[in-house]
């Protein structure tokens, strides 16, 4: 039986890269873990940084980001509000542009390569920095597993993104929530196998007579805190859509 995962999917990273600063928002919760991770990236000796996921619009959080300025540009990993709410205000205060690009850019004195990693959301993007670490937003979390919430979440796309991230090898992961991980390939492999095992549980629940998503949740996610069942139901909807397309 596949249980609810609360531990990290890979070994924790001992030390952040010298070019990465973590500013964590004070918005902890069941879906945000310790809070949203805002990452400030700047090569040593470079005057300006790039901000990834400015997070919620909390004045203390904005002040902490600006303290680490000046800011060259703003990036986001996906459109969820806990990652983007502060974007307009931060752009207004700093004058920094919000960038959306394919391929590579030089920002904060670093090579930033954008790669599409949809699944958690349609617009999810990861950023590989100097081929030394990858920022993944909510595609991989520092603890537990992420939500693939139908209809914006797409499980087939998510599994494909896991293959993309496995291809990065043992690269450190800087996630959108929770602690940094030491090995992207290990974390993505764990996520892929966990999703496959959950799919088999959902398939069995449907074969056993479960009809509605919440019927499946009561069977497959019985070990999950009921406060998370609505999110689990959206994940089940994504699983059911996947099974319809991949019988």
UniProtKB/TrEMBL annotation:
Q: Which InterPro entries match?
A: LACTB2_WH, Metallo-B-lactamas, RibonucZ/Hydroxyglut_hydro, Sec-metab_biosynth-thioest, WH-like_DNA-bd_sf
Q: What's one Pfam family the UniProt record gives for this protein?
A: WHD_BLACT
So which domain of life are we looking at?
Bacteria
Which residues belong to any copy of the Metallo-beta-lactamase domain?
35-177
The UniProt entry, under Gene3D superfamilies, shows: Ribonuclease Z/Hydroxyacylglutathione hydrolase-like, Winged helix-like DNA-binding domain superfamily/Winged helix DNA-binding domain
Looking up PANTHER family in the UniProt record yields: ENDORIBONUCLEASE LACTB2
User: What is the designated name of this protein?
Assistant: MBL fold metallo-hydrolase
Q: Which organism is it from?
A: Virgisporangium aliadipatigenens
